[in-house]
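Now for one record.
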Amino acid sequence: MSRKQTRIAVLCYGCLATAAVWLVFSGGESARSAPPTKGAEPGAAPISAAPDDRPADKESVQKALDGFVAAFRGGDAKAVAGSWTTEGEYTDDEGTTYRGRAALEKAYTEFFSKNKGHSLEVEVDSVRFPSKETAVVEGHFKLRKSKGGELVVSRCSLLYAREDGAWRIAIAREWASDGLTLRDLEWLIGTWEAKRPGVTVSTKYEWTANKAFIRCTFSVTQDGTTHTGMQMIVRDPANGELQQWTFEDSGGIGSADITRDGKKWVITARGTAPDGRTLTATNIMTPIDADAFMFHSVERAVNDEGQPDLPPVKVTRVKTKP
């Protein structure tokens, strides 16, 4: 493939999580669930309070939520169960319900014994007060399965009740997503990089407002020349499918369908280069841990003419300084 072909293919083969740019690494080319899980820093996301919207109670609910996370972080089943009211209940994302502190403590004890090193962040989307003594917290549990393991995000709703002057969970529910959602790709958020002699590829993934889309900006620097572009990852509200659109600053465009096969993410990509040529490929991402994944591009074609598969390449997260 010529340098020009390599440059324009940068856009059209790639589709998701740095896939838009890994083509330049081709050899020889020039150009489910348990009780809400163990807390991890930063713990529960802060609850924002609007002026005169019961800020003191919101602060108290926040402290209660932080206490729940801290107890989970310590693997203290008794303290976690104590975050509930005496007859409080929790329903997990498989529909199993635990009622009362004794049942909750037993469930958490079993969970902690079988799941070492799991971590959790609670992201609060909203909090409201249906009555003087109750509060509803809506948000997401973000479970990291062991240190550096898979990130699993699920919806949650917690009804807090003020009991004996303290806010405790009366009812908690957790839901798995119905099909793939953008939350399943939350592990991408951040900056990633891969290098080979003469080539550096960088991507940055971030949420847009209200977490409606994931936006990616990418750059490919090869032999002193840099090519840039952007991607938008979306969930089509018409059919619930994940899609990705790519726009290269040189004028090429592309799109892809995103599916999941076990641990692997499969991206079926197609695009048009600035000179009108059509490009297709199947890109496969396989997470290794929280900070690395393997990328492999196969079934590639330019104007329906088959191209060699690319060798797998390791992509790593660029960690920010604390």
Remarks:
- Residues 1-34, 37-42 have pLDDT under 50 and may be disordered.
- The helical segments are 3-12, 55-73, 77-81, 101-114.
